[in-house]
Amino acid sequence: MNRRTALLAVPALFLSGCFAGGGGDPDDGPGTDRLRVALNFPPVAALSPYTDDALLLTRMGAAETLVTFDDSGAAQPQLAESWEFIDDRTALLELRADVVFHDGSPMDAQAVAGSLNAAAAADPGVRVLGDVGLVATAVDADTVQLQAAQADPLLVQRMGAPSLVILAPDAYADPSAPDPVGHGTGPYEITAVEGTQSATLAAAADYWGGSPAADGVDVRFVDDADARTSSLRAGELDVAQAVPIGALPTLTDEQRVVTTSLPRLTSLQLNTAGGVFADPALRAAAVAAVDAEPVVEGVFEGQADAAPGLLTDDTLGAAARTEPTLPTAGDPAGASIRLATYDDRPELPEAAAAIAEQLRAAGFTVEVVVQTYATIEPDLLAGAFDAFLGSRLTLLDTGDPVGYLSTDYTCDGGYNLARLCDPAVDAAVASAAALTDPRERRQAAADIEAQVLSTAAVVPVLHEQSRTGVGAGVQGVGDDPFERQVVTVATTTGR
Length: 495
Known about the structure:
Helix content: 10-25%
Number of domains: 3
Number of strands: 17
CATH architecture of the largest domain: Roll
Structural class: alpha+beta
Number of helices: 12
């Protein structure tokens, strides 16, 4: 069976009974207009923001950061209304007035500084603050000073990372694992959490952004994509995050999908440090062989955007792309390569198979290796494969493309799967990292992108899209390219 037929043959895995008390009947009286939401992964650390659980907090509308990001990744006001740099390692943030935490305590400068200093002192450390040496100080009731140990152009940008959501002082009874229950500032307050299964939230009456459109939210954490989709189709959910492409034809006229283009790149990384692709001419032959259109239209069924480069047009904004200059392509002459991918993202193995056929047609001999990401990552980092097809969020925690290019394409980059080590690229990244103007940083990123592509170390294939399924009448679901917002103050069932 093909993917669509196979999906239709899967028994429905409804979440019956999961939302008892979450209203669907408009005659049930007040307090029944509750959103029924399924998110696509369970908490791993009791919703501590110092883990990936931070994304769950923002997606539920339960906690907020000082700044948020626009489509390009530039910082925009959230709990902080404005900011200015005093010097190259110090910034002053003016807080939004009259914000209160869900426990009724004020979100003043002392509370914000305490929240940030707790994150800076966390062990293990919070990723976005690594080596920053952050110290936050309350200057007055509404002003917070941020100071880094050294010059840091991204100091304010870092405040948009979900791990730096601001919680009330009482959340830090255990400094290593802050408790967000009843301690956030979002439109909905967490009132109960049932392990890794569910969370219950009530509308925050004093929310600074206005009255939430729903009375509350009942969240289930469901990592089975088919179960989420089946429950949406059965009318048991109002919102289902991450609807798989293969499930789209199974939705009825009662459902629709909110689709958002993401700064998430699916690309073919070529191992420049050893094996077949140590030869630039053979890398250029591989680049020439890969055609993204059959992957976008066939495997992803048009639910993706062909990649114009490593970075999306939204990310680069007004920056002008520079055309890369590739090495002269050589003759593969049957050269054998191992192409690896992982099956955690269901489209990747099929995409790898399609690209493998294109490479074979160009004269390569290709073996495809498919594992789970957890098992394959050590070999990827060790350079055990000639090529790797994977998915990567290019704006990371800070919304900054230069940080992504540094991590993935410099000699000492921590996730340099192409094992590229080009002194000219390293020098350009170091120069860009010192820029403070966001527009200048994006133009520098566009220029570095061209340098990287000119080495033929990577083949951009497509930029992914998020797909959030919503039931009949549901409005106001977050349309967020960073996938940090699902439930917003405006989300309503329409019932």
